[in-house]
Write a structure and sequence with these properties.
The protein is an all-alpha fold and 701 residues long. The protein has helices at 18-40, 66-78, 88-110, 116-126, 133-140, 144-164, 171-182, 189-202, 211-223, 245-253, 264-287, 289-292, 295-316, 332-342, 345-362, 373-389, 397-420, 427-459, 464-470, 476-484, 486-505, 510-519, 547-555, 557-567, 572-580, 588-596, 618-634, 641-657, 668-685, and strands at residues 4-5, 57-58, 63-64, 84-86, 207-209, 229-230, 235-237, 461-462. The longest helix is centred in the middle third of the chain and has 33 residues, at 427-459.
Length: 701
Amino acid sequence: MGKSQRDSFLQGQWKTNFSIQMLIYAIFGVAFYLLLLPHALPQFVDIKVGKVSRETIISPITKIDETATKLAQDRAVESVDPQYTKNEELTNSQIEKIDLVFADARRIIADKTLTEPEKIKSLKDAITKELPEEFYYKLVRTPENELTDLRLTTRDIVSDLLEEGIRTQELASKKDQVDRMLVISSLSSNSRYLAREMARYFLIANELYDQKKTDSLKEAAKDSVDSIPIKKGQVLVSSGEVVTDDQYRKLTEMGIIREQTNFLPYVGLLLFVALILAIFRFYVQRFHSFVHADNSQLLLLISILLLTLIGMKIVTLGQNLEWSTVGFLAPVALGTMLITLLLNSKLSISASLILCVASSMFFKGDNQFLFDFRFGLIALISGIISTFALDDVKRRSAVLKAGVLTSSISMIVILALYTLTPTESDITQLFQSLLFGFIGGIFSAVLTIGFLPYFETLFGILSPLRLLELSNPNHPLLQDLLYKAPGTYHHSIIVGNLAEAAAESIGADGFLARVGAYYHDVGKLKRPQFFIENQIHRDNPHDKISPNLSKTIILSHPRDGVEMLKVHRIPKAIQDIAAQHHGTTLLKFFYYRALEQSNGTKVIEEDYRYPGPKAQFKEAAIVGIADCVEAAVRSISKPSPSRIENMIGKIIRDRLEDGQFHECDLTFKECNTIAKAMAATLQGIFHSRIEYPDDIPKGGK
């Protein structure tokens, strides 16, 4: 859960408005982009083709030479021959057509009812009209016994040639091959002519161009080509060397040449920031819904990140003073500490990743690489350590202790880094780095203590530290309650214990519930004698006044309490608990007394209900239940576990039926859990004791 928040300058629909949420993310994205931009642009050189280079230029990174790689791939693709696939269906279809044609020809030629011209016409219709006229005159006069040999010869020639596969561009040569195949035929010259014409006619291209197969082989050939890299540290141009077109191309592709039209670094950083922003938004939406659903909490998170980034940016100015490791001084832990205290530790860990990326870019100095992992590593470790150190903070001094711990761990990591990179182990620089690392954590802690109250006030956040201060019995309001309304004070303490146990049992903020309970009845300080817990050895003043006046006094104590809390600058969440703990419940005692004394006068029930509002959050509802339960159980003469449980159950049922929990999303299951937690706590308070007799019998020990 996030830290308690009930009031900020983003209220109502603005707290959940999607457009506002997108605007907050957009502002952060633009600011993040602008802060990183000067550190993301590459270092340029002034060089031209045909000119002598005045310096040796080395590749700062390993990058694929896209142009050279593409040329190699194109050569591989061009070496792939077009691919063809033989269509067996076409082959079989042509053979079947030959058989059908000869069957028709045999039938027509044998038909004695037809004249020769009629037979020729029928043959043209059965075969085709594309063959020469001579073909049909010879075919119609072919003896029946030669038709079988003619069919088989034609069939074999077509079948053999189609079986070999014929491409479109080969069709003419294959038809010429028919003549050579008929030379060895035993057919008569007449039948040989017919076989030639028939075979040439039935030969078709049955081996078709296979686009898919060709493309697949070309793609495989392209993939088989290894990428040609420009390796990190590779000399691109040597000093004194005349720059060639290819060298200039490589320098351009590496982004080393300054060109007015080169917007790639800007676009690259834009994509990088957009990706980080998208991942961060998805993470917040998926794992921190309380922030995603509340624009004020989202704005708090983004404000802390921007404050930290600006602080880091200011520190980068120190690198202009020959302090190359000044990045170890950056107040990265400021962001993680504030997020841990004001939101939660899990969110702080994820935020440290963003700060890690920023730190590694901010402090890369003259390094030609985009990131310097040393500063990113220190930032990440500082963020994680400070988060763990403050995860369960109990007092304000813990922030300084967390800063010292962060500084100590940072120094150990810095020492380890210098040990692992002996070539960079300049002793002066090492001591300088250790000093910066030591100051960095403590500096972050001091800034955290300084900025924390402003964030608490501006966003209405109740951090654990603020709650600790409010729970101090020496607080002026609690002191007034103790001396002016001692019964109410002790009642509030017990209510606090009940509320804390109940809230923690359902995952709500137990600390907030307890502190809220301490202050929920401070309004009774205005007229303490009118509340029964403060009437020890005193007459009840309500016996002497009308029910209408009594209810006016009783019903006003939540409002009076809110006014007093405002005067003492108590956070809004505590004010809300004081205002909402009774909700709009009915003041039954005085309502029924008014009915008894009405003498026929109409008594309006609504006038005897608390003004509300109903509980808007679970902790307020729990304090209201605990308040009623403590008073009710105190009235039981002999409290037993079953009586206590029954009393708690009845109180919760009455409030449920009265609709008091409709606006705080308290479920039936949570109500049962709350009842069990309160029963267990009360049984510990009102446990049975041995009742000792007044006189000890004789002989007793």
